[in-house]
UniProtKB/TrEMBL annotation:
Entry protein name: HTH merR-type domain-containing protein
GO MF terms held by the record: DNA binding; DNA-binding transcription factor activity
Keyword DNA repair: no
Domain HTH merR-type: 1-70
InterPro entries: DNA-bd_dom_put_sf, MerR-type_HTH_dom, MerR_fam
Pfam families referenced in this protein's UniProt entry, alphabetically: MerR_1
UniProt KW keywords: DNA-binding, Repressor, Transcription, Transcription regulation
Cited SMART domains: HTH_MERR
Amino acid sequence: MLTVTELARKCEISRTAVLYYEKVGLLMPSCRSDNGYRWYSEKEVNRLKSILAYRAFGMSISDIATLVSSESEQEQGALLKSQFHTLAREIQTLKKQQQAIVVMLQEPDLLEEKVVSKSRWVEIMTSLGFSENDMIEWHRNFERMKPEQHKAFLESLGISSTEINAIRARK
């Protein structure tokens, strides 16, 4: 069992954040001691990790509440897909803003710069909890579902054609 401070340290967030998640009803302690201390079990640790992952996806508190309390995979999938599409629209808006800046500056070369490199992408995936095998599986699925978009994505990371071919050939 962990105290609020120990839980916060374990999950690398502030004590205040843990208390906030309790206040909004996302995370409740397993029990309270006679002196009022909150105690959290492994179940709450895992729940907090899920909450933090969903926050990293940009999910709202109300959507996170639904995600962590729902046992319906369909409902969870629908919420995550909705967030995915929201992010896609935001990305398109940001790209249009970038293009407007390029036009204003009259510097088309700015669009050629790599926004995310291979190492940064691996860093992002690792921070989301992906293992090496998870990343390989992610690439397999992307290649199977959208081969041309997968190739374009790999090129956008600045990966050599030899390495792209090796990644795409993994079965």
